[in-house]
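Input (structure):
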């Protein structure tokens, strides 16, 4: 009985491509880490500089911006920064895709 269940389990794994899904998940995790490192360590330091000489990075003024309505704090600055990162990565993926399809 136990051996039959194990065979059915192995058949289930093979039919549903579980191993390929696990491998794809692991690879996508590292791609996520790579893209986060690219935006945080390569692109944002260019934007995160102190251009006006006040001792604070220019983007921190916007990153910590809070919009308050009816005693609810909306951290729109952080949201906008994350949206900006998303567009950078999306454009980069578009550019790479276009380049490698040629």
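Output (sequence):
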């Amino acid at each position: 009985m136990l051996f039959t269940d194990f065979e059915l389990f192995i058949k289930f794994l093979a039919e549903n491509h579980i191993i390929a899904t696990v491998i794809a998940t692991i690879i996508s995790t590292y791609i996520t880490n790579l893209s986060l490192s690219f935006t945080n360590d390569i692109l944002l330091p260019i934007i995160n500089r102190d251009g006006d000489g006040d001792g604070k990075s220019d983007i921190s003024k916007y990153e910590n911006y809070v919009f308050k309505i009816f005693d609810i704090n909306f951290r729109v600055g952080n949201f906008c920064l994350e949206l900006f990162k998303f567009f950078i990565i999306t454009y980069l993926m578009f550019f790479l895709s276009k380049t490698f399809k040629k």
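Notes: The chain has one domain: 2-101. Strands lie at 67-69, 72-74.
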